[in-house]
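Hi R.,

Here's the chain you asked about this morning:
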Amino acid sequence: MGDLPERYRERMKELLGEEYHLYEESLCRSPYTAFRINTGRMSVEQWKEINPFSTSEVAWTEKGFYFDAKKENPAKHPYYFAGLYYIQEPSAMIPAMLLPVKEGDRVLDLCAAPGGKATELGAKLKGTGLLVANDISVSRTMALAKNLQMAGVTNAVVTAETPERLADVFEGYFDKILLDAPCSGEGMFRREPRMIKDWLEKGPEYYADIQKEILGQAYRMLRPGGMLVYSTCTFSVIEDENVVQWILMQYPDMEICPVERPEGFLEGRPDMVEGGQAELKHCVRIFPHHAKGEGHFAVLLHKKGVTQADRDVFISGRKKKEKIFGSAFDKTAGKEIEDFVSRLPLPDGELSVRKQVVSLLPLQEDQLNGLRIIYQGLPLCEWKHKILASHQLALILRKDDFSKVLNLSVTDERVLKYLKGETITMELAYTGNVLVCVDGFGLGWGQGNGKGSLKNKYYPGWRYQ
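And the predicted structure, written out as C-alpha coordinates:
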Protein backbone atom coordinates (compact mmCIF):
# COMPACT_ATOMS: atom_id res chain seq x y z
CA MET A 1 0.00 0.00 0.00
CA GLY A 2 1.68 3.15 -1.18
CA ASP A 3 -0.93 5.56 0.22
CA LEU A 4 -0.19 5.18 3.94
CA PRO A 5 0.20 8.59 5.61
CA GLU A 6 3.83 9.43 6.33
CA ARG A 7 3.03 10.27 9.96
CA TYR A 8 1.47 6.83 10.33
CA ARG A 9 4.50 5.14 8.76
CA GLU A 10 6.83 6.84 11.20
CA ARG A 11 4.78 5.77 14.19
CA MET A 12 4.62 2.16 12.99
CA LYS A 13 8.39 2.13 12.38
CA GLU A 14 8.86 3.27 15.96
CA LEU A 15 6.51 0.55 17.19
CA LEU A 16 7.78 -2.32 15.04
CA GLY A 17 11.44 -1.44 14.51
CA GLU A 18 13.15 -3.87 12.14
CA GLU A 19 9.85 -5.69 11.53
CA TYR A 20 8.22 -2.71 9.85
CA HIS A 21 9.00 -3.91 6.32
CA LEU A 22 7.30 -7.24 7.12
CA TYR A 23 4.20 -5.35 8.23
CA GLU A 24 4.15 -3.24 5.08
CA GLU A 25 4.59 -6.33 2.90
CA SER A 26 1.64 -7.99 4.64
CA LEU A 27 -0.62 -5.15 3.51
CA CYS A 28 -0.11 -6.23 -0.09
CA ARG A 29 -1.64 -9.65 0.58
CA SER A 30 -5.36 -10.42 0.53
CA PRO A 31 -7.14 -10.18 3.88
CA TYR A 32 -8.17 -13.37 5.65
CA THR A 33 -11.82 -14.36 5.83
CA ALA A 34 -13.37 -16.55 8.51
CA PHE A 35 -16.51 -17.49 10.36
CA ARG A 36 -17.19 -18.39 13.98
CA ILE A 37 -19.40 -21.33 14.94
CA ASN A 38 -22.47 -20.41 16.96
CA THR A 39 -22.17 -22.79 19.90
CA GLY A 40 -25.55 -21.61 21.09
CA ARG A 41 -26.92 -23.72 18.22
CA MET A 42 -24.43 -26.58 18.00
CA SER A 43 -21.06 -27.79 19.25
CA VAL A 44 -17.82 -27.41 17.32
CA GLU A 45 -17.67 -31.20 17.07
CA GLN A 46 -21.13 -31.30 15.47
CA TRP A 47 -20.05 -28.61 13.02
CA LYS A 48 -17.01 -30.57 11.93
CA GLU A 49 -19.29 -33.47 11.01
CA ILE A 50 -21.40 -31.39 8.62
CA ASN A 51 -18.91 -28.70 7.52
CA PRO A 52 -19.47 -28.28 3.75
CA PHE A 53 -16.55 -25.89 3.23
CA SER A 54 -12.81 -26.24 2.82
CA THR A 55 -11.56 -24.64 6.03
CA SER A 56 -8.63 -24.35 8.42
CA GLU A 57 -8.77 -23.48 12.11
CA VAL A 58 -8.11 -20.06 13.62
CA ALA A 59 -5.20 -20.31 16.08
CA TRP A 60 -6.80 -18.42 18.98
CA THR A 61 -10.26 -20.00 19.07
CA GLU A 62 -11.53 -23.48 18.30
CA LYS A 63 -14.77 -21.88 17.11
CA GLY A 64 -13.10 -19.98 14.25
CA PHE A 65 -12.50 -21.30 10.74
CA TYR A 66 -10.80 -19.65 7.76
CA PHE A 67 -12.33 -20.05 4.31
CA ASP A 68 -11.34 -18.94 0.82
CA ALA A 69 -13.71 -16.14 -0.18
CA LYS A 70 -12.64 -16.50 -3.82
CA LYS A 71 -13.94 -20.06 -3.93
CA GLU A 72 -16.77 -20.21 -1.38
CA ASN A 73 -19.48 -17.91 -0.02
CA PRO A 74 -20.78 -19.12 3.36
CA ALA A 75 -23.21 -16.17 3.47
CA LYS A 76 -25.19 -17.88 0.68
CA HIS A 77 -25.36 -21.28 2.34
CA PRO A 78 -28.55 -22.48 4.11
CA TYR A 79 -26.55 -23.09 7.30
CA TYR A 80 -25.95 -19.34 7.50
CA PHE A 81 -29.70 -18.71 7.46
CA ALA A 82 -30.10 -21.27 10.25
CA GLY A 83 -27.72 -19.21 12.40
CA LEU A 84 -25.04 -21.89 12.65
CA TYR A 85 -22.16 -19.44 12.21
CA TYR A 86 -21.28 -15.76 12.04
CA ILE A 87 -18.90 -14.42 9.37
CA GLN A 88 -16.28 -12.37 11.19
CA GLU A 89 -12.79 -10.97 10.70
CA PRO A 90 -10.50 -13.48 12.48
CA SER A 91 -8.77 -11.15 14.93
CA ALA A 92 -12.12 -9.57 15.84
CA MET A 93 -12.99 -12.90 17.49
CA ILE A 94 -10.44 -12.25 20.23
CA PRO A 95 -12.25 -9.79 22.58
CA ALA A 96 -15.33 -11.96 23.21
CA MET A 97 -13.07 -15.01 23.47
CA LEU A 98 -11.03 -13.35 26.24
CA LEU A 99 -14.03 -12.35 28.36
CA PRO A 100 -14.71 -15.31 30.73
CA VAL A 101 -18.50 -15.26 30.58
CA LYS A 102 -20.26 -18.01 32.49
CA GLU A 103 -23.91 -19.03 32.60
CA GLY A 104 -26.07 -16.71 34.68
CA ASP A 105 -23.83 -13.65 34.24
CA ARG A 106 -25.10 -10.17 33.59
CA VAL A 107 -23.13 -9.09 30.52
CA LEU A 108 -22.85 -5.77 28.69
CA ASP A 109 -21.51 -5.26 25.16
CA LEU A 110 -21.21 -1.50 25.27
CA CYS A 111 -20.42 -0.70 21.61
CA ALA A 112 -22.00 -3.81 20.14
CA ALA A 113 -23.05 -3.14 16.52
CA PRO A 114 -23.10 -4.98 14.20
CA GLY A 115 -23.11 -7.91 16.63
CA GLY A 116 -20.15 -10.20 15.98
CA LYS A 117 -18.99 -10.05 19.58
CA ALA A 118 -22.48 -9.85 21.09
CA THR A 119 -23.58 -13.05 19.35
CA GLU A 120 -20.59 -14.89 20.86
CA LEU A 121 -21.36 -13.51 24.33
CA GLY A 122 -24.94 -14.70 23.90
CA ALA A 123 -23.71 -18.17 22.92
CA LYS A 124 -21.61 -18.31 26.08
CA LEU A 125 -24.61 -17.44 28.26
CA LYS A 126 -26.69 -20.28 26.75
CA GLY A 127 -29.99 -18.51 27.36
CA THR A 128 -29.24 -17.70 31.02
CA GLY A 129 -28.54 -14.42 32.76
CA LEU A 130 -28.77 -11.24 30.73
CA LEU A 131 -27.03 -9.70 27.73
CA VAL A 132 -27.41 -5.97 27.18
CA ALA A 133 -26.12 -5.10 23.70
CA ASN A 134 -25.85 -1.35 23.17
CA ASP A 135 -24.86 1.01 20.41
CA ILE A 136 -25.38 4.75 20.39
CA SER A 137 -26.57 4.65 16.76
CA VAL A 138 -30.19 3.60 16.29
CA SER A 139 -29.58 2.61 12.66
CA ARG A 140 -26.66 0.37 13.64
CA THR A 141 -28.68 -1.33 16.35
CA MET A 142 -31.08 -2.58 13.68
CA ALA A 143 -28.32 -4.79 12.23
CA LEU A 144 -27.28 -5.71 15.77
CA ALA A 145 -30.79 -6.88 16.65
CA LYS A 146 -31.08 -8.91 13.45
CA ASN A 147 -27.79 -10.70 14.06
CA LEU A 148 -28.77 -11.57 17.63
CA GLN A 149 -32.08 -12.92 16.37
CA MET A 150 -30.42 -15.00 13.67
CA ALA A 151 -28.05 -16.41 16.28
CA GLY A 152 -30.99 -17.50 18.43
CA VAL A 153 -30.02 -15.34 21.43
CA THR A 154 -33.10 -15.25 23.65
CA ASN A 155 -31.91 -13.25 26.67
CA ALA A 156 -30.73 -10.02 25.03
CA VAL A 157 -31.92 -6.44 25.40
CA VAL A 158 -30.73 -4.20 22.55
CA THR A 159 -30.48 -0.53 23.51
CA ALA A 160 -29.46 2.66 21.73
CA GLU A 161 -28.13 4.84 24.51
CA THR A 162 -25.10 6.88 25.47
CA PRO A 163 -22.72 5.11 27.86
CA GLU A 164 -23.46 7.80 30.45
CA ARG A 165 -27.21 7.12 30.30
CA LEU A 166 -26.63 3.39 30.67
CA ALA A 167 -24.33 3.97 33.65
CA ASP A 168 -27.03 6.01 35.38
CA VAL A 169 -29.32 2.97 35.17
CA PHE A 170 -26.87 0.08 35.60
CA GLU A 171 -24.29 1.38 38.08
CA GLY A 172 -22.37 -1.54 39.63
CA TYR A 173 -24.64 -4.01 37.85
CA PHE A 174 -22.71 -6.10 35.32
CA ASP A 175 -20.51 -9.12 35.99
CA LYS A 176 -18.77 -8.84 32.62
CA ILE A 177 -18.39 -5.96 30.18
CA LEU A 178 -16.95 -5.88 26.67
CA LEU A 179 -15.85 -2.54 25.27
CA ASP A 180 -14.63 -2.77 21.70
CA ALA A 181 -14.10 0.94 21.51
CA PRO A 182 -14.42 3.37 18.61
CA CYS A 183 -10.90 3.85 17.27
CA SER A 184 -8.79 5.14 14.40
CA GLY A 185 -9.02 1.73 12.71
CA GLU A 186 -5.38 1.23 11.77
CA GLY A 187 -5.91 -2.51 11.77
CA MET A 188 -8.52 -2.12 9.02
CA PHE A 189 -6.38 -0.23 6.48
CA ARG A 190 -5.84 -3.35 4.36
CA ARG A 191 -9.49 -4.42 4.38
CA GLU A 192 -11.04 -0.95 4.27
CA PRO A 193 -8.65 1.64 2.79
CA ARG A 194 -11.30 4.33 3.33
CA MET A 195 -10.30 4.25 7.00
CA ILE A 196 -7.09 6.05 6.03
CA LYS A 197 -9.07 9.20 5.27
CA ASP A 198 -10.69 9.09 8.71
CA TRP A 199 -7.24 8.63 10.28
CA LEU A 200 -5.98 11.74 8.52
CA GLU A 201 -9.01 13.78 9.61
CA LYS A 202 -9.06 12.66 13.25
CA GLY A 203 -6.22 10.38 14.25
CA PRO A 204 -5.46 8.46 17.46
CA GLU A 205 -5.45 11.51 19.75
CA TYR A 206 -9.08 12.26 18.87
CA TYR A 207 -10.24 8.74 19.67
CA ALA A 208 -8.17 8.35 22.85
CA ASP A 209 -10.27 10.99 24.61
CA ILE A 210 -13.48 9.23 23.56
CA GLN A 211 -12.12 5.88 24.70
CA LYS A 212 -11.26 7.19 28.16
CA GLU A 213 -14.72 8.68 28.56
CA ILE A 214 -16.45 5.43 27.59
CA LEU A 215 -14.10 3.37 29.78
CA GLY A 216 -14.97 5.57 32.72
CA GLN A 217 -18.67 4.84 32.23
CA ALA A 218 -17.93 1.12 31.80
CA TYR A 219 -16.08 1.18 35.12
CA ARG A 220 -19.18 2.61 36.80
CA MET A 221 -21.29 -0.28 35.49
CA LEU A 222 -18.87 -3.05 36.45
CA ARG A 223 -19.58 -4.64 39.82
CA PRO A 224 -16.75 -5.29 42.29
CA GLY A 225 -15.20 -8.60 41.30
CA GLY A 226 -16.33 -8.14 37.69
CA MET A 227 -14.21 -8.37 34.55
CA LEU A 228 -13.92 -6.10 31.53
CA VAL A 229 -12.29 -6.50 28.13
CA TYR A 230 -11.10 -3.31 26.46
CA SER A 231 -10.20 -3.71 22.80
CA THR A 232 -9.57 -1.78 19.61
CA CYS A 233 -8.78 -2.59 15.99
CA THR A 234 -5.90 -0.14 15.97
CA PHE A 235 -2.15 -0.41 16.60
CA SER A 236 -1.64 3.01 18.16
CA VAL A 237 -0.09 2.99 21.63
CA ILE A 238 -1.98 6.23 22.21
CA GLU A 239 -5.29 4.37 21.95
CA ASP A 240 -4.09 1.07 23.40
CA GLU A 241 -1.52 0.86 26.21
CA ASN A 242 -1.82 4.56 27.05
CA VAL A 243 -5.56 4.22 27.59
CA VAL A 244 -5.08 1.09 29.70
CA GLN A 245 -2.42 2.89 31.74
CA TRP A 246 -4.91 5.71 32.25
CA ILE A 247 -7.60 3.44 33.69
CA LEU A 248 -5.08 1.75 36.01
CA MET A 249 -4.04 5.16 37.33
CA GLN A 250 -7.56 6.56 37.45
CA TYR A 251 -9.06 3.53 39.19
CA PRO A 252 -6.53 1.77 41.46
CA ASP A 253 -8.94 -1.14 42.04
CA MET A 254 -8.54 -2.17 38.39
CA GLU A 255 -5.84 -4.67 37.46
CA ILE A 256 -4.73 -6.47 34.29
CA CYS A 257 -5.26 -10.24 34.12
CA PRO A 258 -2.74 -12.47 32.33
CA VAL A 259 -4.32 -14.54 29.54
CA GLU A 260 -3.31 -17.59 27.56
CA ARG A 261 -1.18 -16.64 24.59
CA PRO A 262 -1.73 -18.85 21.54
CA GLU A 263 0.15 -18.41 18.30
CA GLY A 264 0.04 -14.81 17.08
CA PHE A 265 -0.54 -13.17 20.48
CA LEU A 266 2.25 -10.62 21.07
CA GLU A 267 2.74 -8.80 24.36
CA GLY A 268 1.79 -5.23 25.12
CA ARG A 269 4.39 -2.46 25.03
CA PRO A 270 4.91 -0.86 28.46
CA ASP A 271 8.26 0.40 27.13
CA MET A 272 6.41 2.82 24.85
CA VAL A 273 4.29 4.35 27.63
CA GLU A 274 5.65 7.07 29.91
CA GLY A 275 5.81 5.48 33.35
CA GLY A 276 4.27 2.34 31.84
CA GLN A 277 3.41 -0.31 34.39
CA ALA A 278 5.04 -3.68 33.80
CA GLU A 279 1.67 -5.47 33.78
CA LEU A 280 0.90 -3.78 30.45
CA LYS A 281 2.86 -6.63 28.88
CA HIS A 282 -0.21 -8.83 29.57
CA CYS A 283 -2.13 -6.91 26.90
CA VAL A 284 -2.64 -8.75 23.60
CA ARG A 285 -1.43 -7.41 20.27
CA ILE A 286 -2.16 -8.96 16.88
CA PHE A 287 -0.30 -7.82 13.74
CA PRO A 288 -1.01 -9.02 10.19
CA HIS A 289 2.64 -10.02 9.66
CA HIS A 290 2.54 -12.30 12.71
CA ALA A 291 -0.97 -13.76 12.52
CA LYS A 292 -3.70 -14.55 10.03
CA GLY A 293 -5.84 -11.54 10.84
CA GLU A 294 -6.06 -7.81 10.24
CA GLY A 295 -4.85 -6.81 13.69
CA HIS A 296 -6.29 -6.13 17.13
CA PHE A 297 -5.49 -4.99 20.64
CA ALA A 298 -7.20 -6.40 23.73
CA VAL A 299 -6.75 -6.54 27.47
CA LEU A 300 -8.66 -8.34 30.23
CA LEU A 301 -9.22 -6.18 33.31
CA HIS A 302 -10.49 -7.14 36.77
CA LYS A 303 -12.22 -4.90 39.30
CA LYS A 304 -11.00 -5.89 42.73
CA GLY A 305 -13.40 -6.67 45.54
CA VAL A 306 -16.59 -8.66 45.98
CA THR A 307 -20.21 -7.61 45.97
CA GLN A 308 -22.96 -8.40 48.44
CA ALA A 309 -25.62 -7.04 46.12
CA ASP A 310 -28.78 -9.08 45.60
CA ARG A 311 -28.15 -11.38 42.65
CA ASP A 312 -31.70 -12.77 42.48
CA VAL A 313 -32.93 -10.19 40.01
CA PHE A 314 -33.89 -12.43 37.13
CA ILE A 315 -37.18 -14.18 36.79
CA SER A 316 -36.90 -17.85 37.63
CA GLY A 317 -39.66 -19.70 35.87
CA ARG A 318 -42.45 -17.88 34.04
CA LYS A 319 -45.62 -16.07 34.99
CA LYS A 320 -48.64 -18.30 35.09
CA LYS A 321 -49.87 -18.60 31.55
CA GLU A 322 -53.52 -18.60 32.58
CA LYS A 323 -53.21 -15.16 34.12
CA ILE A 324 -51.24 -13.70 31.22
CA PHE A 325 -53.30 -15.14 28.40
CA GLY A 326 -56.65 -14.97 30.15
CA SER A 327 -56.39 -11.21 30.53
CA ALA A 328 -55.08 -10.55 27.01
CA PHE A 329 -57.19 -12.88 24.84
CA ASP A 330 -60.66 -14.35 24.76
CA LYS A 331 -61.11 -17.80 26.27
CA THR A 332 -60.60 -19.76 23.03
CA ALA A 333 -57.51 -17.84 21.91
CA GLY A 334 -56.03 -17.93 25.39
CA LYS A 335 -56.38 -21.69 25.60
CA GLU A 336 -54.79 -22.23 22.17
CA ILE A 337 -51.85 -19.94 22.95
CA GLU A 338 -51.36 -21.49 26.37
CA ASP A 339 -51.20 -24.93 24.80
CA PHE A 340 -48.80 -23.71 22.08
CA VAL A 341 -46.40 -22.04 24.52
CA SER A 342 -46.48 -24.89 27.05
CA ARG A 343 -45.08 -27.27 24.44
CA LEU A 344 -42.06 -25.11 23.58
CA PRO A 345 -38.59 -25.78 25.05
CA LEU A 346 -38.10 -22.25 26.36
CA PRO A 347 -35.45 -20.83 28.70
CA ASP A 348 -36.54 -18.99 31.83
CA GLY A 349 -37.98 -15.54 31.41
CA GLU A 350 -41.11 -13.46 31.83
CA LEU A 351 -44.01 -14.00 29.47
CA SER A 352 -45.46 -10.79 28.13
CA VAL A 353 -48.31 -9.87 25.78
CA ARG A 354 -48.40 -6.64 23.78
CA LYS A 355 -50.65 -5.94 20.84
CA GLN A 356 -51.51 -9.62 20.50
CA VAL A 357 -47.82 -10.62 20.39
CA VAL A 358 -46.57 -13.07 23.02
CA SER A 359 -42.90 -12.68 23.97
CA LEU A 360 -40.44 -14.07 26.47
CA LEU A 361 -38.53 -11.25 28.17
CA PRO A 362 -35.22 -11.63 30.01
CA LEU A 363 -35.67 -8.66 32.30
CA GLN A 364 -38.57 -7.13 34.21
CA GLU A 365 -39.79 -4.01 32.46
CA ASP A 366 -39.58 -1.82 35.58
CA GLN A 367 -35.82 -2.45 35.62
CA LEU A 368 -35.34 -0.83 32.20
CA ASN A 369 -36.11 2.64 33.56
CA GLY A 370 -37.07 4.33 30.32
CA LEU A 371 -34.10 3.23 28.23
CA ARG A 372 -34.41 3.41 24.45
CA ILE A 373 -35.01 -0.25 23.67
CA ILE A 374 -34.74 -1.45 20.08
CA TYR A 375 -35.38 -5.14 20.71
CA GLN A 376 -35.59 -7.51 23.64
CA GLY A 377 -36.16 -11.13 24.48
CA LEU A 378 -37.82 -13.59 22.15
CA PRO A 379 -41.11 -13.09 20.29
CA LEU A 380 -42.99 -16.39 20.39
CA CYS A 381 -46.16 -15.91 18.41
CA GLU A 382 -48.86 -13.50 17.30
CA TRP A 383 -52.62 -13.97 17.37
CA LYS A 384 -54.46 -13.02 14.17
CA HIS A 385 -57.54 -15.18 14.44
CA LYS A 386 -55.01 -18.00 14.66
CA ILE A 387 -51.52 -18.53 16.06
CA LEU A 388 -48.70 -17.29 13.83
CA ALA A 389 -45.35 -18.51 15.19
CA SER A 390 -42.47 -15.99 15.08
CA HIS A 391 -39.47 -16.36 12.84
CA GLN A 392 -37.19 -15.72 15.83
CA LEU A 393 -38.71 -18.71 17.60
CA ALA A 394 -37.86 -21.01 14.68
CA LEU A 395 -34.18 -20.05 15.02
CA ILE A 396 -33.89 -21.55 18.52
CA LEU A 397 -35.69 -24.82 17.63
CA ARG A 398 -34.63 -28.16 16.23
CA LYS A 399 -36.69 -30.75 14.47
CA ASP A 400 -37.60 -32.62 17.67
CA ASP A 401 -38.85 -29.46 19.41
CA PHE A 402 -42.11 -29.15 17.46
CA SER A 403 -44.84 -31.56 16.43
CA LYS A 404 -45.24 -30.47 12.79
CA VAL A 405 -41.88 -30.37 11.03
CA LEU A 406 -40.62 -30.37 7.46
CA ASN A 407 -36.97 -31.36 7.83
CA LEU A 408 -35.08 -30.92 4.57
CA SER A 409 -31.61 -32.06 3.64
CA VAL A 410 -29.27 -29.22 2.77
CA THR A 411 -29.08 -30.67 -0.76
CA ASP A 412 -32.87 -30.60 -1.21
CA GLU A 413 -33.78 -27.97 -3.83
CA ARG A 414 -36.76 -26.97 -1.69
CA VAL A 415 -34.40 -25.37 0.86
CA LEU A 416 -33.39 -22.54 -1.47
CA LYS A 417 -36.94 -22.20 -2.76
CA TYR A 418 -38.10 -21.75 0.81
CA LEU A 419 -35.37 -19.21 1.59
CA LYS A 420 -36.40 -17.24 -1.50
CA GLY A 421 -40.00 -17.05 -0.26
CA GLU A 422 -41.57 -19.55 -2.64
CA THR A 423 -44.40 -21.96 -1.86
CA ILE A 424 -43.05 -25.49 -1.49
CA THR A 425 -44.53 -28.96 -1.32
CA MET A 426 -44.26 -31.52 1.47
CA GLU A 427 -45.05 -35.16 1.87
CA LEU A 428 -47.33 -34.80 4.92
CA ALA A 429 -50.73 -33.11 4.90
CA TYR A 430 -50.06 -30.73 7.79
CA THR A 431 -52.25 -27.75 8.59
CA GLY A 432 -51.30 -24.63 10.53
CA ASN A 433 -47.78 -23.81 11.73
CA VAL A 434 -45.07 -26.06 10.28
CA LEU A 435 -41.45 -25.70 11.37
CA VAL A 436 -39.12 -25.82 8.36
CA CYS A 437 -35.66 -27.21 9.18
CA VAL A 438 -32.44 -27.83 7.31
CA ASP A 439 -30.61 -30.92 8.57
CA GLY A 440 -32.55 -30.65 11.80
CA PHE A 441 -32.01 -26.91 12.49
CA GLY A 442 -34.93 -24.49 12.37
CA LEU A 443 -35.03 -22.06 9.43
CA GLY A 444 -38.51 -20.57 9.70
CA TRP A 445 -42.21 -21.33 9.40
CA GLY A 446 -44.80 -22.17 6.81
CA GLN A 447 -48.56 -22.58 6.93
CA GLY A 448 -49.75 -26.00 5.84
CA ASN A 449 -53.01 -26.24 3.87
CA GLY A 450 -53.66 -29.91 4.63
CA LYS A 451 -53.05 -30.88 0.99
CA GLY A 452 -49.26 -31.16 0.89
CA SER A 453 -48.57 -27.49 0.16
CA LEU A 454 -46.73 -25.07 2.47
CA LYS A 455 -47.41 -21.33 2.29
CA ASN A 456 -44.11 -19.57 2.85
CA LYS A 457 -43.78 -17.42 6.01
CA TYR A 458 -40.07 -16.65 5.73
CA TYR A 459 -39.20 -13.05 6.63
CA PRO A 460 -39.30 -11.00 3.38
CA GLY A 461 -36.37 -8.83 4.42
CA TRP A 462 -34.17 -11.81 5.28
CA ARG A 463 -34.73 -13.87 2.15
CA TYR A 464 -32.02 -15.40 0.02
CA GLN A 465 -31.00 -12.95 -2.70
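The CA atoms of residues 365 and 450 lie 40 Å apart.

Let me know if you need anything else.
M.
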